[in-house]
Structure formats: C-alpha cells, structure tokens
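Hi R.,

As promised on Friday, here is the backbone we talked about, encoded as structure tokens. Could you run it through your design pipeline when you get a chance and send me back a sequence?
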C-alpha cells in the first residue's frame, strides 16, 4: 500500500487518512511504492499508460468526464512579441470538462472517495474546484458539499448548483481563516474535505506533466509558468516530472515559475526576499479571485523547492493582469484573470534577463474567462448599438476602417 509522507520532515502517514496536512501545517505527498521501477505501459487512456506512477491500481472509466487531452500549442507571433520569448508554448487547460485544470485533481478525489466507499465529498473553493467537484460528484452519484467565500463569481456558483451541490457561502474575515476553520471540522465530522493542496488531488495534476511529456516527444520545457494559490497544481506538475526523472525517462527537470498577484503574494514575496516562511496576506483585493490563498498551508514546501531547484518567482499588478487578459484574448484565448498573470510575469522575467529569449517556456492557462467577472477597467472593443435601418452603414464603417 502507498503511504503519505510529509514533504519537509519526511514523516510517514497512512494513505487513507482524512488530514491533508500535518499538525504543523506541512503538506503531504503520496510516496508511490517502488517509483524507481515504474514503467510506462501501452493503453488507451493516459492514466492506463502511467498507472505505475499513480496511487490507484485502476481508474474506473465511469467516473471520468473526459478531462485532459488538452492542446499544447506554439504561441503566435503576438504572444511571442509581448513576452520576448521565441520558444513559447501554451498548455490550454481551459478545455477541461468544467473549464479548468481542477478536473484532473477532482477525478482522483472521486476515485479516492470510491476506494474508501464514501458517499459525500466536500471541498472549500473560490469557485473552480467547487464547480469541478460538483460535476464529478454528480457523475459518480456522490453527494457534494462546497464551501465558498462571499466573493465567488455567480457563474461559478450557478454551475455548482446546477450539478446539485450543497453550497455553503461563508462570511469570514478572510479566506485563510475560513479555510482553516472548515478543514479543522474534517476529523470531527469524519468527513473528507479536500483542499487545493491535498495529496490525492496533487497526484491528479501529475497527469499534466505526463501528457506534456508525450506531447513534446519525451522532451521537457526549460520553464513552466503556473499561477499559484493553494500550491497543489505547481507541486503536482513538478512531482510528475520528478518521477519521470527518477525512472530515467527524462534527464533534466523543468524549472517552475511561481506566479502570484502583487496584491496577494504570500509565496512569491518570500522567495524574492529569501525568506523561508510564508508572508501571510490578510486584507487584500485582487481581480484574480482564483488565486486568493493568502496564507496557504504547505506553502513553505514551494519556497524550499524553489531554492533547491532554482525556480523563478514573479508577481504582477492588477493593471498588468487586466492587460494580459486582453493580450491573451487577442490571440484567441479567453482566460480568467488568475491565468492572465503568467503572461505578464514571463514578460517581466524575460525583460530583466532571468529567462533567456531562446528558452523553451510553457504557460499553463488554468481556467476559462467565461466563468469569471470581466474587470471593469478593461479595454475591450465597445459594442455597436444601432437601429435596423443603420445596420448597413455600420458595416460599411467597419469595412472602410479596416481597408
Ligand atoms: C485553483 C486555480 C489556480 C491555483 O491553483 P493552486 O493549485 O490552488 O495553486 C490558478 N488558476 C485557476 C484558474 C484556478 O482555478
């Protein structure tokens, strides 16, 4: 049986335990037995091919909504010019079943619930994870409970309720306090409450690394930029590459780029200052509401890894986020503000020479703009309103303007 191991003090815990962190707040990860001997198999699904790297002996197809298989495309000239990076790749996770990468982790959370014969799944979320769990719970005939903060966008709430989730909207002084309180109820209620940085969810995110490994014909990007909040995504993707490295399938590791909003950068600001602990952010506002963990449990692991493996970290302002969202949109990608952060961050890092112009950089766009509120100060093209009789002249105006 696989075990959980605390990521810094290296203590061993049972695989099936409810707690997702140690009492000291350290994150836990799954230690795959005999990972050094894991082999990639043949099989139809990604999880079949990489089953020896995963904590389940089998994934039941019936719980899947078809997550993954998202495109990895070369960026167009506009994005190349904007960032200054010639070898820029876009991994488009907005094409997942609930329009964010969270689906990869939710698949595994549901697999775990099934393995433990649990009937209820619960999660705390600013929106995307809740929506994802609600959808996957519906597919698997499980009851779901989703705790959300008051600022969750309506489109995310509506989708959860469509899937039949029990939604509990909480007024709390801040998201961190709300999260700690909710997670503390898990053991008391004997209820598995999954967070964004839980060990099982994180295993699901390894599939992104495996998928990119296949899409790049066994090559590895030099850098991978990820908007970071609870930290599950970035550590999951890196763990996937690390395990490929341990088995000898790859001979170098990608460097991760940790990206946060300047208004809430508990991890990035610590990395930049060379501090080993999180810098908690409590009272803040950012339009990137999907990355609002101000005091993420387990965040120290990311700070430590960034030092150990030479990762980069960058923070971006609200106006840079709004602008990047528009730049992405002009290249055909409608992303939410949290995902837009990575474009501005990579541009800044290239400008100051931290990323070489010819480095191979992958941007993971994490969530779709459709479920989010559009920032008010954005410069999108105004809508033309007209009476029926003026339609023709309006069209002519556009055509003349573009000639
Ligand atoms: C959850 C989320 C993130 C942050 O991922 P973590 O695993 O919490 O670090 C980034 N972008 C989007 C769109 C998200 O939904």
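Update: got your reply. Pasting your designed sequence below so it's all in one thread:
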């Amino acid at each position: 049986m696989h075990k959980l191991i605390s990521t810094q003090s290296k203590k061993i815990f049972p695989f099936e335990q409810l707690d997702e962190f140690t009492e000291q707040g350290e994150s836990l990860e799954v230690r795959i037995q005999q990972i050094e001997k894991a082999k990639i198999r043949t099989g139809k699904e990604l999880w079949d091919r990489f089953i020896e790297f995963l904590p389940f002996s089998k994934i039941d197809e019936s719980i899947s909504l078809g997550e993954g298989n998202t495109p990895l495309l070369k960026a167009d000239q506009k994005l190349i010019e904007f960032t200054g990076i010639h070898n820029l790749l876009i991994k488009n996770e907005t094409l997942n079943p609930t329009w964010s990468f969270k689906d990869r982790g939710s698949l595994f959370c549901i697999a775990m619930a099934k393995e433990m014969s649990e009937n209820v799944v619960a999660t705390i979320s600013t929106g995307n994870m809740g929506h994802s769990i609600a959808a996957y719970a519906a597919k698997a005939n499980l009851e779901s409970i989703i705790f959300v903060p008051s600022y969750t966008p309506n489109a995310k709430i509506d989708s959860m309720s469509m899937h039949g989730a029990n939604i509990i909207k909480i007024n709390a002084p801040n998201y961190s306090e709300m999260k700690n309180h909710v997670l503390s109820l898990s053991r008391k209620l004997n209820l598995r409450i999954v967070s964004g940085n839980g060990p099982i969810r994180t295993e699901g995110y390894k599939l992104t690394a495996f998928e990119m490994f296949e899409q790049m014909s066994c090559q590895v990007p030099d850098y991978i930029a990820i908007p970071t909040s609870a930290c599950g995504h970035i550590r999951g993707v890196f763990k996937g590459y690390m395990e490929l490295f341990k088995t000898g399938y790859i001979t170098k590791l990608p460097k991760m780029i940790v990206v946060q909003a300047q208004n809430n950068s508990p991890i990035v600001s610590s990395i930049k200052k060379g501090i080993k602990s999180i810098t908690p952010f409590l009272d803040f506002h950012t339009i990137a509401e999907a990355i609002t963990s101000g005091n993420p449990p387990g965040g120290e692991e990311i700070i430590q890894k960034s030092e150990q493996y030479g990762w980069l970290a960058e923070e971006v302002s609200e106006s840079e986020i709004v602008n990047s969202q528009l730049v992405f949109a002009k290249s055909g990608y409608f992303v939410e503000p949290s995902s837009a952060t990575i474009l501005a961050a990579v541009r800044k890092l290239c400008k100051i020479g931290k990323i070489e112009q010819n480095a191979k950089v992958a941007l993971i766009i994490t969530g779709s703009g459709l479920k989010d509120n559009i920032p008010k100060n954005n410069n999108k093209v105004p809508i033309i309103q007209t009476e029926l009789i003026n339609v023709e002249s309006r069209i002519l105006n556009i055509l003349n303007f573009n000639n």
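One thing I noticed while checking it: The chain has a mean pLDDT of 96.

Thanks again,
M.
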